[in-house]
Design brief:
Elements (H helix, E strand, L loop, with lengths): L6 H17 L4 H19 L4 H20 L1 H5 L4 H7 L1 H19 L4 H31 L4
Helix pairs in contact: 2-3, 3-6, 3-7, 6-7
Length: 146
């Protein structure tokens, strides 16, 4: 007798396995360092940089990294990165908005001009990790490690 599994379960298992493999190439120190590079100057003026902000930024960076990695298969098959980014635009925008709302909440930011510059920082931050995941995923596919 065979065990019957659904395609959704099998797809989810493959996705989790792929994400675990991708996360092996990502270091926590690198993530934390990049958080401080991007947002330290902003929060230094507010004298606030709790570990909660750092943890939230790291979590969202991991999500952006995995998003880029999951879309890397299109790049592997020859599609230019900008076209692939348009495919994931909605998910990437969601991550940017989530990070922005998170940082505004913990930083008590109500100023429009400060908020606008923070939003651009969030865009840059998410974009960096999306591209990092995309490039690493494409590299793993080229090396047949996926």
């Amino acid at each position: 007798m065979n065990v019957i599994t659904s395609f959704k379960e099998k797809k989810r298992e493959k996705q989790i396995t792929y994400e675990r493999k991708m996360l092996r190439e990502l270091s926590l120190e690198k993530l934390k360092k990049h958080v401080h590079e991007c947002f330290d100057s902003f929060y230094r003026t507010y004298r606030v940089f709790p570990s909660v902000i750092e943890d939230g930024c790291v979590d969202i960076a991991i999500e952006a990294y995995l998003l880029g990695a999951s879309y890397s298969r299109f790049g592997y098959y020859g599609e230019p990165m900008e076209m692939v980014r348009r495919r994931s635009e909605r998910e990437e925008k969601y991550l940017i908005d989530t990070l922005f709302d998170f940082l505004c909440f913990w930083g008590n930011i109500d100023d429009v001009f400060v908020g606008e510059s923070l939003y651009y920082m969030c865009e840059h931050y998410i974009s960096h990790w999306w591209i990092e995941g995309f490039e690493k995923g494409k590299k793993r596919r080229r090396l047949k490690l996926h």
